[in-house]
Amino acid sequence: MSAVSPVSTVLSGDVRQATGRREGRVLILGSSLTIMGAVMIAPVLPKLGAEFGPVTAHADLLVPLAVTGPALAIAVCAPLAGWLADRVGRKALLVVATVLYALLGVMPALLGDLHAIVIVRLLFGAAEAAVMTCCSALIADYWHGSERLRYINRQMVIIGLVGALFFMLGGALGEYSWRLPFLLYLLPLLLVPAMLSVLWEPTRERPGAQAPGPERVALVPVVLGYLLIFGGMVLTFIAPVQVPVLLVQVGVTSSTLIGLCAGLSLLATLGGSLAWPLMRRTLKGAGTNAVLLLLFAAGLWLLNHAQSYREVALAMLIHGLGAGLLVPNVMAPVMQALTPRTRGRGLGGLTACMYLGQFVSPLVVAALVAWVGDLRHALQWLAVASVVAAMLWGMAAVARRRSTV
């Protein structure tokens, strides 16, 4: 029996490390597609309304649905996408969904009917559900422990960067035509060859490489994660949907400036994502939840009192920091609580709650506006609700720390 060369051992370790990095890059870029779903077209909502409002019945409802409709489709289709990912495999579903994402994403640029645009956007959301669920499931499959947390953090950082970039780019292109931002949805096609060549199906091609997991699903962290991501997304989606309305109220009508302001909120999520590892080590999960909810509350409270473009931008900066902490701090314990066989379905449920929160966010705000009288007072009540939730998580963090001691 021949001895193993130390050099070959080192080289094989380097190859595995390089392979992990390549897979990580592909999955992180694939995850960033999900933020492109709404951010690129939100700045052109006024132009969509101006073009289709005079000629389309109920355009005031259909135009916002072009932005929020994909979130509803994701909420409905994500559990099915998770089931398919567990049954037929993550890689194949991810590749097909990415192609459909690109083709359906660009179609509104070619359509001249608002009803057709809304229908296509709903189908686009179904493809987006599969992309996000498969990317998250593969991250949970490929890595575990501290390495998994590292890749979750990288995922959120890149999503923040890509979201800020494409929000501003969508606003700039929207100055010329509302159709131009939709052409950017063709870019994901460039990622398909890398998905085919780099990614592998853990349960079939490399069964020994699958990360270990618990034997049974821990229901409490999963349910708490679902509730928190739903409520957090209701607060998060105020930035792309409600901030343009507030900016118009303070005299800002340029789609470029609107895109820059909302893009600043998305860029601020980068700061929250970068701070998340340190904050989680220091305050643990429950304490970090309390902090992010307080940041949401502070941002909404400042937004309620904002009277200028700078004040709105400051409010969105603070609000975005909370949003940057939200997803990784929820996703990490949910991934840990799921078994390898249930990751697709469990993360599909998390994705459904995430986008259901996005979809109902304008409805929640509209209901509050009808109750309290105007948008600013509605934001004030949401800030109060966020403070109450932060206090509950803070008490849970203190109780857990005392029990540990």
Compact overview of the structure:
The chain is mainly alpha-helical and 405 residues long. It has helices spanning 6-39, 45-52, 59-88, 90-106, 114-142, 145-174, 192-198, 219-236, 238-249, 255-305, 309-337, 343-372, 375-404.
Describe the structure.
The protein has helices at 6-39, 45-52, 59-88, 90-106, 114-142, 145-174, 192-198, 219-236, 238-249, 255-305, 309-337, 343-372, 375-404. Helix 6 runs antiparallel to helix 11 (309-337) and helix 9 crosses helix 10. It is an all-alpha fold and 405 residues long. It is built from 13 helices and no strands. The relative contact order is 0.14. The chain has a single domain (23-404), classed as Up-down Bundle (Growth Hormone, Chain: A), CATH 1.20.1250. It is 80% helix and 0% strand.
Our Rg estimate from Cα atoms comes to: 21 Å
Poorly predicted residue ranges:
1-19, 204-211
CATH architecture classification name:
Up-down Bundle
Strand elements, count:
0
Q: Provide the residue-averaged pLDDT.
A: 83
Q: How widely separated are the two ends?
A: 52 Å
Main beta-sheet annotation: none
CATH superfamily annotation: MFS general substrate transporter like domains
Domains, number: 1
* Tally of helical segments: 13
Specify the CATH class: Mainly Alpha
CATH topology: Growth Hormone, Chain: A
Beta-strand residue fraction: under 5%
Tell me the overall shape.
Answer: globular
Helix coverage percent of residues?
over 70%
